[in-house]
């Protein structure tokens, strides 16, 4: 039975109204990545970083899953122990579409992290620099997000799934950010077939056995169903 590893990026949630990063008008064209998505930026100006993620958290709360999220949730429900769903996204639209097990390698907007004791909890809608950690009380809380230069979450679990994959599918990711952008090669070396579903060619399109172009809300249900 085929084991499938799926990697999703911002393009999966684009049709739900959540901004991508590198498309025209994307988040990195409005905010300086160094200022809002690095630990150094957070240390320099935590209020700006909380403002950036508070705005994205509100945007996410107002968004609804699109047919691509629903199709992936259906696929995982139909093949529960054969579909590993990895996302670079920090939104919870896959969960809200019914996906039972989502690996958020870059963290989650809905979670907060204490920089002092490592405690994690459900993030309030609006986070601020003076929020005390519920466990140790210090005001060193941050969004539970993996920033540039930080180690992505669940890498061992992901590497194991890639080593055993029969099929690797990348959906709506530009292939610019590592280690996620290297997953297609990891899976290919392990003998998996590789498929890319994207609105346009990505930085790693040439590494896939097959690439289909179009919006995720059409391509993903077509592929799943
Ligand atoms: C790390 C925070 C060490 C959350 C993000 C080589 C090896 C290892 C590391 C590096 C390396 N080279 C450089 C590095 C360092 C760095 C890196 O990759 N830099 C880049 C810029 C060169 N990587 C890191 O720092 C990572 N950490 O490497 O630690 C390590 C490594 C391995 C093992 C142990 C330790 C940490 C990276 C995480 C950074 N955090 N964000 C947040 O704020 O959201 S990354 C950021 O970019 C987002 O989180 C997002 O997840 C990620 C990728 O972006 P995409 O999802 O691809 O979005 P993008 O806008 O780029 O593209 C959108 C795509 O959608 C496009 O292709 C478009 O065509 C498509 N699309 C649009 N609309 C649709 C669509 N597709 C379908 N339908 C549509 N409707």
From TrEMBL:
UniProt keyword annotations, A-Z: Cytoplasm, Metal-binding, NAD, Transferase, Zinc
Lineage: Bacteria, Pseudomonadati, Pseudomonadota, Alphaproteobacteria, Rhodobacterales
Binding sites annotated in the UniProt record for Zn(2+): 114, 117, 133, 136
Cellular-component GO terms for this entry: cytoplasm
Binding, NAD(+): 9-28, 88-91, 172-174, 198-200, 216
List of residues binding substrate: 53, 56
Cell compartments where the protein resides: Cytoplasm
Catalytic activity: N(6)-acetyl-L-lysyl-[protein] + NAD(+) + H2O = 2''-O-acetyl-ADP-D-ribose + nicotinamide + L-lysyl-[protein]; N(6)-succinyl-L-lysyl-[protein] + NAD(+) + H2O = 2''-O-succinyl-ADP-D-ribose + nicotinamide + L-lysyl-[protein]
Entry comment, domain topic: 2 residues (Tyr-53 and Arg-56) present in a large hydrophobic pocket are probably involved in substrate specificity. They are important for desuccinylation activity, but dispensable for deacetylation activity.
Protein name according to UniProt: NAD-dependent protein deacylase
Cytoplasm is among the record's keywords: yes
Organism: Roseinatronobacter monicus
């Amino acid at each position: 039975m085929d084991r499938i590893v799926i990697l999703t990026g911002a393009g999966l949630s684009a049709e739900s109204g959540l901004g991508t990063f590198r498309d025209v008008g994307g988040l990195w064209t409005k905010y300086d990545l160094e200022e809002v998505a690095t630990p150094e930026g957070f240390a320099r100006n935590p209020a700006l970083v909380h403002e950036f993620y508070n705005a994205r958290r509100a945007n996410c709360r107002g968004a609804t899953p699109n047919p691509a999220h629903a199709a992936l949730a259906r696929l995982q429900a139909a093949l529960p122990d054969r579909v590993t769903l990895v996302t670079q996204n920090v939104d919870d639209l896959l969960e809200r579409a019914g996906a039972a097990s989502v690996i958020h390698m870059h963290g989650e907007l809905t979670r907060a992290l204490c920089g002092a004791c490592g405690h994690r909890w459900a993030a309030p809608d609006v986070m601020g620099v003076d929020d005390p950690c519920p466990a140790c009380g210090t005001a060193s809380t941050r969004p539970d997000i993996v920033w540039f230069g930080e180690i992505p979450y669940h890498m061992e679990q992901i590497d194991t799934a890639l080593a055993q994959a029969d099929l690797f599918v990348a959906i709506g990711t530009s292939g610019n950010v590592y280690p996620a952008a290297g997953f297609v090669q990891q899976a290919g070396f392990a003998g998996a077939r590789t498929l890319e579903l994207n609105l346009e060619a990505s930085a790693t399109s040439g590494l896939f056995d097959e690439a289909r172009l179009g919006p995720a809300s059409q391509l993903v249900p077509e592929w799943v169903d």
